[in-house]
Amino acid sequence: MMEISIQLEAEDWRQFQKYLEKELPKTVKPRTGSFGFNVILWTVITFMFFVIFQNTDEFHWPTAGFVVVIFIVVFALFVYNLVQQGKAYAPAEDGAFVGEHHFVFDEKGIATKGKGYEARHNWSTVKRIERVNGMILIFLDTAYAFVLQESKLEDPDSLYAYISKQYQLQQ
After folding, report:
1. DSSP category for residue 127
2. DSSP β-bridge partners for residue 119
3. Do 154 and 141 contact (CB within 8 A), yes or no?
4. Are residues 101 and 165 in the same domain?
5. Domain limits at 66?
6. What is Dmax (Cα atoms) for the chain?
7. Has this prediction a pTM greater than 0.90?
């Protein structure tokens, strides 16, 4: 049995979210994300703009400038919305993520306790365990995990070895 207490902050959540944003898209590869699809799509879009805005005598620079401005505005709005979404999902300072968390790892599973909650999870509910970017992540679902910052743990190597062994024994 191993027990740990860890103080999590909003920055720990941001680090976990950056990891998810980078890694989750790799698990599902849509056709729209493939290189070939994008080449064909942008070729069709370019052809359509040439057909719609083409002047048979000469290239019309004001129209080209207008189209470029529209694309820049659309791209800026897209980036702005992504930033706003990231802020909307950030944990509240008085929420369940930020604060002191106590974990007990044993042969049966993981018991956790924090401000306003208590839970027990069997090892069978753990989907995977990863050690990345200075974090030990115990995934209970696709994007839900216990985040354990290695810098806030006394002995992250022995903790990782213990939970990995318990997880493998239950598989």
Report:
1. -
2. 112
3. no
4. yes
5. 29-89
6. 81
7. no
Residue 166 belongs to domain with CATH number: 2.30.29.30
Return phi, psi of residue 28, to 5°.
Answer: -125, 115
| Residues 103 and 129 placed together within one structural domain of the fold | yes
Cα 162 to chain centroid, rounded: 26
The alpha carbon of residue 52 and the mean position of all alpha carbons in its chain are separated, in whole angstroms, by: 40
pLDDT at residue 137, as a whole number: 96
Low-confidence stretches of the chain (pLDDT beneath 50): none
**Do 72 and 104 belong to one domain?**
no
CB within 8 A of 152, min separation 6: which ones?
6, 7
Secondary structure class of 92 (helix, strand, coil): coil
Spatial strand order in the sheet of 99-105: 2-8, 99-105, 109-114, 117-122
Rg of the chain over all Cα atoms, to the nearest angstrom: 24
Per-residue confidence (pLDDT) for residue 57, from 0 to 100: 62
What secondary structure does DSSP assign to 10-60, as a single string? HHHHHHHHHHHHHHHHHHS--GGGSHHHHHHHHHHHHHHHHHHH--SSS--
Q: What is the predicted pLDDT for the residue at 29? A: 66
Residue 137 in contact with residue 3, Cβ under 8 Å?
no
